[in-house]
Write a structure and sequence with these properties.
Cobalt-precorrin-4 Transmethylase, domain 1; four-stranded parallel beta sheet; five-stranded parallel beta sheet; alpha/beta; 13 helices; Rossmann fold
Length: 343
């Protein structure tokens, strides 16, 4: 089996910063330390943080979840929280530490500013994900979360001041059709592209690599929006099989792939919340046979007949850290030209 590592892959700056903050707080803060939800959506990373003494409080509703924390320090995750959560933490006398990704912070500031100026904000995001929960909390009643075309059709917005923006962990491909639908109903709507550059670059790289491999493996958590989106775009746009791997096991599709004729290639891409060590756990340790596969962010390796996730492999990351403009590549250029002011 031949494994092709897809570049770029690995942690983005928001995840790196969140881990650094959590580690520093645990080392320097006496008393109990809690994270309100998974710091990043990766089971292995969360287990590591708990082993370091950071307790996980992971309720569906983060505001209600604060009532489970009686004392000490609470870390707000990289996905961000609503102003109501921050206020409640202060009322409870907790030492609140904000590890929100800087890209998400800018989205919060944008939405709050638009709401102050009298805009109705259409926010494209995934229902049940903590990032939209926090952003919508910036201006309840003024921010309208939509995920499907039917959600947009159900909107009844009045006035000339309408804006549309989106969750940072989606992609241009996720959002352009929905934004087009908003613009067709509300031609005056301003478009604010808040897509994270690291997410977009990894998705574009995976789709491009899919042209040269037979299978793409994404090593990441089923709770990770980044991981799920990466699998989706490879299947939809790359027209290749893609699989999400998050545990120590030999998946059934591996046997099917080995049974194929020829010598397939595997492409691997690791999404932002997956540790590099986890990715190294997905490499063949014997002569290459079977499918050629691509490894995407979080990766899995094959050692003999044992498929495993190596918990040691992800403690360091030498991948690029992306800052600055949030979009990149051809898809972003198409997005910009389609939804330019006045378009």
């Amino acid at each position: 089996m031949e494994v092709v590592r897809i570049t770029p892959r690995g942690y983005c700056h928001g995840v790196v910063d969140a881990f650094r903050i959590a580690k520093k707080i645990r080392e320097e803060t006496p008393g109990p330390v809690h994270m309100l939800g998974m710091l990043v959506h990766n089971t292995h990373a969360t287990d590591d943080l708990q082993a370091q003494g950071i307790a996980l409080v992971d309720p569906p509703d983060r505001l209600a979840g604060l009532n489970q924390i009686k004392e000490g320090t609470v870390i707000f995750t990289a996905h961000g929280v609503s102003p109501q959560v921050k206020q409640r933490a202060a009322e409870l006398g907790l030492n609140a530490i904000d590890a929100t990704c800087s890209d998400v912070v800018r989205t919060h500031e944008l939405v709050a500013d638009l709401a102050r100026k009298g805009y109705e904000v259409v926010y494209i995001g995934r229902k049940g994900h903590p990032e939209p929960e926090g952003v919508v909390g910036e201006a309840p009643g003024k921010v309208h979360l939509v995920q499907e075309p039917e959600d947009i059709d159900a909107l009844d917005l009045q006035g000339d001041r309408i804006a549309v923006t989106c969750q940072t962990t989606l992609s241009v491909w996720d959002t352009e059709d929905l934004i087009g639908r908003v613009k067709s109903r509300y031609p005056q709507a301003e478009v604010h592209n808040e897509i994270c550059r690291a997410t977009q670059e990894r998705q574009e790289a995976a789709v491009e690599a899919a042209k040269e491999v037979d299978v793409v493996i994404v090593v990441g958590s089923p709770r990770s929006s980044n991981s799920l989106r990466l699998v989706e775009v490879v299947k939809k746009l790359g027209q290749k099989p893609a699989y999400l791997v998050d545990r120590r096991a030999r998946p059934a599709w591996a046997d099917r792939a080995y049974a194929r004729a020829g010598r397939p290639r595997r492409g691997a891409n690791r999404l932002r919340p997956t540790r590099r060590p986890t990715a190294r756990a997905v490499r063949p340790a014997r002569p290459a046979r079977g499918p050629r596969r691509g490894l995407a962010e979080g990766s899995q390796e094959s050692r003999g007949d044992q498929w495993c996730l190596d918990p040691v492999a992800a403690h360091t990351s030498r991948d690029r850290i992306h800052r600055g403009p949030r979009t990149a590549g051809l898809a972003a250029s198409r997005f910009a030209s389609r939804f330019a002011a006045g378009a």
